[in-house]
Hints:
Blueprint: E1 2-12, E2 41-48, E3 55-59, H1 67-78, E4 98-102, H2 111-123, E5 125-129, H3 140-151, H4 160-172, E6 185-186
Parallel strand pairs: 1-4, 4-5
Antiparallel strand pairs: 1-2, 1-6, 2-3
Amino acid sequence: MIDLFYLDESGFAPTLPTGYTWARTGARALVRDEPPRGRRLNVLGALAAGGAAPGLVWTEPAGKLDGAAFLEFVWREVAGLPEAPADLPDDYRRERPCVAVLDNYSVHRSAVVKATVPDLARAGVHLHYLPPYSPELNRIEELWRHVKHEELPVRSYTSLEALRAAVADALNRHAVPSPARAVSTIDLPEAA
Length: 192
């Protein structure tokens, strides 16, 4: 058994994509547009897509999303490690291996992440990189699209706080119910 997560980042702008709109015949449809001007909301999420308790673990990084923020999310929220991988005792190992499937975003392959990969592996956490330009293989991409296009009640937010509240409400509907995170498990075939 392994814990399997699909991990990715997503950005939410004050004006979200509008696929279509309606207007009376002869009237021009007007869609409000709020320029981002520092009001873009970035979130980092990991989707446990199967098992007994599928769900989303997500966070809004404080400040810029860099390798350190990414690693903090992986070891605290995804893998549930008690402390940083480098600080774990040499004999520490997760009960079940944890695999995070992710794309080739530069943050995921940064020097700090590469330096931490051996410590993560020693603790039972593995990063699996998808082939370049293959977002269709990352299951969390479906969730991001669904939230942006179908779950946010307003298409244009006038404040970052309103956008943040709407995004949090939408993502929390998909979140893993408890902090203990009963996560996805996959049966591995027996070795022949």
